[in-house]
Amino acid sequence: MKAAEQYFADVARTVQADAEPATPDGPRKAVGFADYVEAGWQIGNVGMAARNALPDVTAEDAPWYGRATANLATLAATPRRCWWAR
To answer: What is the DSSP string of 25-61?
Structure first.
């Protein structure tokens, strides 16, 4: 049991280190599905207007499925009346 506990402790430390921002004032990295959705929503027009702030979470260094999830969340948060919907 000791080896399994050590393994999961190491994984938790790695995930926490990956989530820390590259710069002290910069956005943190997305590390899970909820973070990917949040990053996509925050980067969209509606998310930035609703929050009145720049994104707190970024999916730039995420795996392909994380970036895809963030992009889908960005599209879902896009207003219906866009330039292409005219």
So the answer is: TSPEEP-SHHHHHHHHHHHSHHHHHHHTS--SEE-TT
**CA-CA distance, 70 to 86, in Å (whole number)?**
25
Longest dimension (CA), the chain: 62
Query: In this model, does residue 71 exceed pLDDT 70?
Result: yes
| Per-residue pLDDT at 29 | 85
Give the Cα separation of 40 and 4 in Å (integer).
Answer: 34
Residue listed under structure tokens 């999830």: 69
Q: How far apart are the first and last CA of the chain?
A: 61
Q: How far is CA 37 from the centre of its chain?
A: 6
The first and second tokens of residue 54, run together, are 């720049």
